[in-house]
Design goal:
The structure is a homotetramer of 284-residue chains. Chain A has 284 residues and is an alpha/beta fold. The first copy, chain A, has helices at 43-53, 80-92, 107-113, 127-133, 150-162, 188-197, 206-210, 213-225, 252-268, and strands at 18-19, 25-26, 32-36, 60-62, 97-100, 116-119, 140-143, 168-172, 202-204, 230-236, 250-251. The first copy, chain A, contains nine helices and eleven strands. In chain A, helix 1 packs parallel to helix 2 and helix 8 runs parallel beside helix 9 (252-268).
Amino acid sequence: MKDARLTRKQTPSHTSAIAITDRLAIGTEAITLIAGPCAIESREQMEAVAAHLAPSPIQMLRGGAFKPRTSPYSFQGLGRAGLEIMRDVGRAYDMPVVTEVMAVEQVEAIADCADMLQIGSRNMQNFDLLKAVGQIEKPVLLKRGLAATLEEFVMAAEYIMSSGNPNVVLCERGIRSFDTYTRNVLDLGAVVALKQLTHLPVIADPSHAAGRRELVASLSKAAIACGADGLIVECHPEPDRSVSDARQALSLDAMTALADSLPAIAAAVGRTLPATSAPLPVAV
Amino acid sequence: MKDARLTRKQTPSHTSAIAITDRLAIGTEAITLIAGPCAIESREQMEAVAAHLAPSPIQMLRGGAFKPRTSPYSFQGLGRAGLEIMRDVGRAYDMPVVTEVMAVEQVEAIADCADMLQIGSRNMQNFDLLKAVGQIEKPVLLKRGLAATLEEFVMAAEYIMSSGNPNVVLCERGIRSFDTYTRNVLDLGAVVALKQLTHLPVIADPSHAAGRRELVASLSKAAIACGADGLIVECHPEPDRSVSDARQALSLDAMTALADSLPAIAAAVGRTLPATSAPLPVAV
Amino acid sequence: MKDARLTRKQTPSHTSAIAITDRLAIGTEAITLIAGPCAIESREQMEAVAAHLAPSPIQMLRGGAFKPRTSPYSFQGLGRAGLEIMRDVGRAYDMPVVTEVMAVEQVEAIADCADMLQIGSRNMQNFDLLKAVGQIEKPVLLKRGLAATLEEFVMAAEYIMSSGNPNVVLCERGIRSFDTYTRNVLDLGAVVALKQLTHLPVIADPSHAAGRRELVASLSKAAIACGADGLIVECHPEPDRSVSDARQALSLDAMTALADSLPAIAAAVGRTLPATSAPLPVAV
Amino acid sequence: MKDARLTRKQTPSHTSAIAITDRLAIGTEAITLIAGPCAIESREQMEAVAAHLAPSPIQMLRGGAFKPRTSPYSFQGLGRAGLEIMRDVGRAYDMPVVTEVMAVEQVEAIADCADMLQIGSRNMQNFDLLKAVGQIEKPVLLKRGLAATLEEFVMAAEYIMSSGNPNVVLCERGIRSFDTYTRNVLDLGAVVALKQLTHLPVIADPSHAAGRRELVASLSKAAIACGADGLIVECHPEPDRSVSDARQALSLDAMTALADSLPAIAAAVGRTLPATSAPLPVAV
């Protein structure tokens, strides 16, 4: 990876923490948990999620306003209305939010509403979009492509950084394989390798990797154990009614139970988890 | 593929030919050959290519002005200057041209200069770009993603068509696999299946699939034999000096030798190849 | 592939034809077609197949007596009774037969009854079995493993040859991939590469690659067009009643129609197909 | 997996521990660590390994006497001489031993010398061998094939069990993928799924999965965290001089350091690790 000029770890102890807000950074000793539904469906749904998660160690909210869907006829997300819901709920519960940006023209609006912009797997080599998020300052959560090599993944981060934005967090979310039992294969060897090759934080998405909710908790523990700096996990007030990816969403109770199970694993590898994510909400 | 509303073959004999110019369509009884360098490097290079190919059965020119590259520090293409070269050379030799569009903001400029716009593998699910090329009338060459299922590929075409542009040609260009001897694996079963599932023309790109020039001619014959409506092949006046993908480019002599070897295969499956691509050039 | 001592092509024109009988060799100018059911189910079944195929250009019969099955509770083949059926029917119709050997202890019995022994995909690196068939003289049809690299495939042939048996024919039969539309992906780039790297004949199995009968004829043409020395195709008197792999078996009429469509393709690449496989049968 | 008659988990709490010796079982609350070189190279080598590992929590020795090698010209293992070394060293240090069986004819000799027989990835569907180890009582360590689906893996265990031997331990050891940075991809989702689908113990082999020693420790922690019942790890007194797989072997110090790092992870998921593997050796 001779061209990994800005992403490369310069010394064994070289690591970068990426500040999300004044009080939260990804890539410190503390593990960062991000949770929320696949798609933002309504204000009520996001309120229910945030209210349930806020008292837990989960610190950030996720939720898609613009949804990449295989079919043009599937629900494409609430769009800007979804962004506003997410912004409002995040502020009310004092939880920073991350949401996916699918197009250059969405960058500004999303940067206004979200604390972190996600580049999804399908867009990992949408170089135009990488350059666009490289021209803002908001942190970017870059997901690995479905069949991206580690070099391609690191070079995608290099596109963002060489465009001017150093605030990149990598996310392993499962790669395509021949077996259909799981939706994808969570490549934790990649998490370990990326932590050795780059100075960037690396988190894992066990939900999209597994595609089955009954596998998510155990894979989450595995990811923390091998050095991931955080997790992004899908949950929903009524998982079976989720408009997308219902099969992999955790219930809110399962989500907080998962979060509560992680401090012991984190401690075993010299990391910590916050006791709670946020102060009480004030209003929405 | 219940959502393949516009792409689906309605009856066994349902096929669509896509007009590229008044005199050329892809998806007829005649096979369409497209050839040219990976990247447009100079006017001299494109002139040399066109002059060599024009008297052959090769009917269209390819060449990248905007190049998707793994590294941000690799040559990114000549950009708009490359488009102008391609347009001028194409007109001079009366050969329609196809070139890749990587960003929404490039669509208009490319549509002005090219006869067909290519969506590359990395952008097969760049839905924003698919919708943008769905709003013009110029034909679109849609390449299969490196790890795209047939359903995802067909649905990407459906995005373009449901946005208003019915002129889509599919291109199988090799999928990722575990073996490193070839760059990718040319999935001709996909070509056969796509011809059965959809009414759209399907062409093959043996160059990117093989990644080795010594495999290209035989794979080209295989593609025609199984029903492909055309080929897109990389060639270069000095292959080893190609600025990108040098290992897979044919020399110009090898390119026309390949073209000359195909009429017999085409005839064996009830297809034809034109004797020559174009009248003599007038000027550049 | 530094260790490809016996398999490596020494000069560009170095090719070996493997004699199956006094009158039939694989790897000559003539294409060899092998056809028959997945499993030998009964004498009547094999009689029906042979009677139908004998007057066609199909020269060899296939059929499994010992069947590798994912589940221990699935039909495992007729075993030695199946071998006898195959031997008798082959002799009666003057068609050489090939059948799979799954265990060292079966080698002798199969070599007594069959003209060629097949090593299946699952056993491509069963080195014990490779060495065992390396100690007989009967030709061996070596199928590529589901996820075998070309080097592993060639080295498996090297195991047989270095054990003393030079009569090896390679067979590409599809590799595992992420898409589920086809059962596997027929890797014709491998066929082309193997013809360039080794002096051994290479045939293709479009049936196991496709897993869908409607794709088999077109893939067969593609394989011949790119230089395969033959094909092995599954067919059955009543495909939908096949005890295994029913979805991919051709009817006997479709099988002979496929064979009749191939001479034109073969001629287009400088090869031939025999007009008929065999003289009339004498008795069973 | 309707045919998983003997392997299927009957109730959520249904688990089987497989006794290796009177004092050791795999699949209990206690994690089992197995370590040793890829190949048995000499008595001195195995002595050095055992002497170093015996005082650690590592309880079993591994080492290959019969080695499956891609090339017939590579070192094939010491064979029966290697078995005797392993048996002697194991007894001297009171550490049970596991070694690979590659052929039916080796089963008896290996069962005489080893406490557990390993079926390697290449032989996961060598049904003849599966049936043979199904007819003894010694426990079998069944490794997942390089491209085996979970169903195929479970059904391979079903072959052993339906032949009469209920003592099967499953081992995930990495699957083939498109990326070449790691040798294979450790599929921990498979470990989690297999623990849910079957009642059998499941261990992980991070060495063959990663193919790079610097990834092994972190992947080991991940495997324990997600519920693996043990690990099998390669180590060598002089890793860079290992006759095979040198790149992935840990030094003996790194091996015991890894073992010493695992009790905290085990405790975090309600498991234990023994403080030491064995009493002091008596003699060899």
